[in-house]
């Protein structure tokens, strides 16, 4: 990554996007952030920086929601197990991103980001159905219960298929923005392209030989 400030920009944009109420549910920078970290960040940085940022913001959000909804135990074992599967999905997104190169076309990167969103949706909604941290009666341990979790969700909330739409759209949009920012910042200016190139040394003019007297 040529521009060292870009990881900082990615982290700041992602952290700000997690302010409660700023975006619609499941319309998140997280999917694109994890995928693009795999594409653009150095190998080790691609793993620990996005995951550490996610962990810090998740802890902050848990405290916020526990204070806002004191009757709900967001620190329950079932909810934490459900949350842990989010990190399995994030690892999958980073791994997927590392299968791409920074020079990959913008269209293919957006496609990769949207594929990552599909993986995230399948993994996390399966975890919600499996662990059922809020004891939703609709989530029976059957194929019908799993299909319900993938499409309709629980009563009193928007259908999960709408969340999937937001997941897909936000991943594609923010992947495009991150990729465009990296390609713009990494592009060499005409001055950079000619840096280090010296003008050819003019040949020394031949001196006339002295005529013997």
Total domains: 1
Q: What is the succession of H and E elements? A: HHHHHHHH
Distance between the termini: 69 Å
Give the number of helices: 8
Classify the helix fraction into a percent range: 55-70%
Shape: globular
* Beta-strand proportion: under 5%
Please tell me the overall pLDDT: 84
> How does the major sheet shape up?
none
Q: What structural category do the secondary elements indicate?
A: mainly alpha
Poorly predicted residue ranges: 188-201, 203-207
| Rg calc | 26 Å
- Strand count: 0
Produce a short descriptive summary.
The protein has eight helices and no strands. By secondary structure, it is an all-alpha fold.
Characterise this structure.
The chain is mostly helical and 213 residues long. It has one domain. 64% of the residues lie in helices and 0% in strands. The protein contains 8 helices and no strands. The chain is globular. About 9% of the residues have low confidence.
Tags for this model:
single chain, 213 residues, mainly alpha, 8 helices
Write the layout of secondary structure elements.
Layout: H1 6-17, H2 30-40, H3 43-68, H4 77-97, H5 106-131, H6 143-151, H7 160-186, H8 190-194
């Amino acid at each position: 990554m040529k521009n060292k400030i870009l990881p900082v920009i990615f982290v700041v944009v992602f952290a700000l996007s997690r302010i409660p109420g700023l975006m619609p549910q499941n319309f998140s920078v997280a999917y694109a952030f994890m995928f693009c970290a795999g594409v653009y960040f150095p190998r080790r940085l691609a793993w620990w920086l996005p995951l550490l940022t996610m962990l810090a913001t998740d802890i902050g959000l848990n405290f916020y929601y526990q204070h806002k909804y004191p009757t709900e135990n967001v620190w329950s074992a079932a909810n934490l197990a459900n949350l842990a599967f989010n990190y399995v999905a994030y690892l999958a997104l980073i791994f997927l991103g590392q299968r791409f190169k920074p020079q990959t076309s913008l269209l293919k990167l957006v496609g990769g980001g949207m594929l990552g969103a599909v993986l995230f949706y399948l993994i996390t909604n399966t975890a919600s159905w499996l662990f059922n941290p809020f004891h939703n009666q609709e989530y029976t341990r059957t194929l019908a219960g799993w299909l319900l979790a993938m499409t309709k969700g629980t009563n009193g909330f928007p259908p999960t298929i709408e969340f999937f739409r937001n997941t897909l759209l936000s991943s594609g949009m923010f992947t495009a923005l991150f990729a465009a920012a990296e390609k713009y910042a990494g592009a060499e200016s005409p001055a950079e392209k000619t840096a280090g190139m010296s003008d050819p040394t003019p040949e020394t003019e031949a001196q006339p030989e002295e005529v013997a007297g």
